[in-house]
Design brief:
Strand content: 25-35%
Shape: globular
CATH superfamily of the domain at 5-74 and 102-182 and 272-356: FAD/NAD(P)-binding domain
Number of helices: 12
CATH class of the domain at 5-74 and 102-182 and 272-356: Alpha Beta
Distance between the termini: 45 Å
Radius of gyration: 22 Å
CATH topology of the domain at 5-74 and 102-182 and 272-356: FAD/NAD(P)-binding domain
């Protein structure tokens, strides 16, 4: 084994949670090392949803990480809801005192955070495969990993597992000590990227008798679109012609047509809700997708991950500045208060906008009535706007 490395905080995962945490700790003078199983190229090219909450954008600006975002992101004052062929603009900015919808793909955020991390001299190890976590119930913790076939050990005061649902972090907590909640949805999203000009100035969330559709954007010439599909569908079942026919049908409205283009990326994404309420076990902390997953309908995944580490970074600051462990003891409860609200909102948006193949005729009518209420009630739209753009923090 190569000689052991040492850091105050060992972070497993170079996704939004791990990278934002590393930057927050750096600003507080706390050392951290990031271990990521994928290559840098893979991290920076994996396509994920891209709606940033208003407070996340402000955080990036405050941290000096928003230079490219300011140039390349798309800022909208609202979103459009569509039922059948009827559309309605929701003025989210007007309902929230000027907060905007910011479209900036997650992998672009990660590019910015990685570049800034390396420019700061922060330590990161890509293609580092974690084999075990030791000492999480002892006085010192350690992360064992291999890189290029060589075994390494990172000794640290604490470990933060920001390594996603399938990572080793959550599984290092004994099963009998974990409290978990799951929901799998009976539908999935087929997402595409295509070369085409924008067809609409903002996002469209459409509920159609045949299923959900979402129109969003990546740039003036690249568009991101989604359609509800069966989670068991092979991607080969969706050739270009079928994709465009389905999108044209579900997004149709009089006097308007969707501009098509060359599809250069497609994937089928299962939808699930998941929460692990055990977010701390000894010297191990969970953050981001390691602790919770939401269906993408509510645009909460990245935003909840950043909220976790905002809370956790302050707990580490209090510990290293004042030997105060209060933040560790309250981390899970504080984070979960926000997580469950995000889970509720994401579940609500998902069930309201999708056609569940197992729903009864009564449930179908209820979802349609709920959507009609949102489209015609300022109070309901204000609640949607507050949740969609990001609930405020207490401090």
């Amino acid at each position: 084994m190569v000689g052991a490395m040492r850091s105050q905080i060992g972070i497993v995962g170079a996704g939004p949670a791990g990278l934002f945490l590393a930057h927050l700790l750096h600003r507080a003078g706390i050392a951290s090392v990031i271990l990521e199983t994928r290559s840098r190229a893979a991290v920076e090219s994996t396509i994920r949803a891209g709606m940033l909450g208003d407070w996340v954008v402000r955080l990036m600006r405050d941290m000096g990480l928003a230079e490219r975002l300011e140039r390349e992101a798309h800022f909208h004052d609202g979103v459009t809801l569509q039922v059948g062929e009827t559309r309605q603009h929701l003025d989210l900015a007007g309902l929230t005192g000027g907060k905007q919808v910011t479209i900036y793909a997650q992998h672009e955020v990660l590019k910015d955070l990685i570049a800034a991390r390396l420019a700061d001299g922060g330590e990161m190890h890509f293609e580092a495969h974690v084999t075990s976590l030791d000492g999480i119930e002892a006085d010192r913790a350690a992360i064992h990993f291999t890189q290029a076939g060589v075994a390494h050990r990172l000794d640290c005061d604490f470990i933060v597992a920001a390594d996603g649902f399938h990572g080793p972090g959550r599984l290092a907590i004994p099963a009998e000590a974990r409290s978990e909640y799951h929901k799998d949805y009976p539908f999935a999203w087929l997402g595409i990227l295509c070369h085409a000009p924008r067809s609409w100035p903002e996002l469209i969330y459409a509920r159609h008798e045949d299923g959900f559709a979402l129109l969003t954007t990546r740039s003036d010439s690249i568009q991101r679109l989604y359609i509800q599909c069966d989670p068991g569908d092979p991607i080969e079942a969706w050739p270009d012609a079928r994709i465009w026919d389905t999108l044209q049908c579900r997004l149709a409205t009089p006097g308007w047509s969707l501009t098509e283009g060359a599809i250069f990326q497609r994937s089928i994404i299962p939808l699930r809700s998941f929460v692990c309420e055990t977010m701390r076990h000894g010297r191990l902390f969970l953050a981001g997708d390691a602790a919770h997953i939401v269906p993408p309908t509510g645009a909460k995944g990245l935003n909840l991950a950043v909220a976790d580490v905002r809370i956790l970074a302050r707990a580490f600051e209090r510990f290293y500045a004042h030997a105060d462990t209060t933040g560790f003891e309250t981390y899970a409860a504080t984070a979960l208060g926000r997580i469950w609200k995000g889970e509720r909102f994401s579940w609500w948006m998902t069930t309201m906008l999708h056609r569940d193949p197992s729903e009864t005729a009564f449930e179908h009518r209820i979802h349609a009535a709920e959507l009609a209420y949102v489209m015609n009630s300022t109070a309901a739209q204000a609640a949607l706007a507050e949740n969609y753009l990001g609930l405020p923090f207490a401090d």
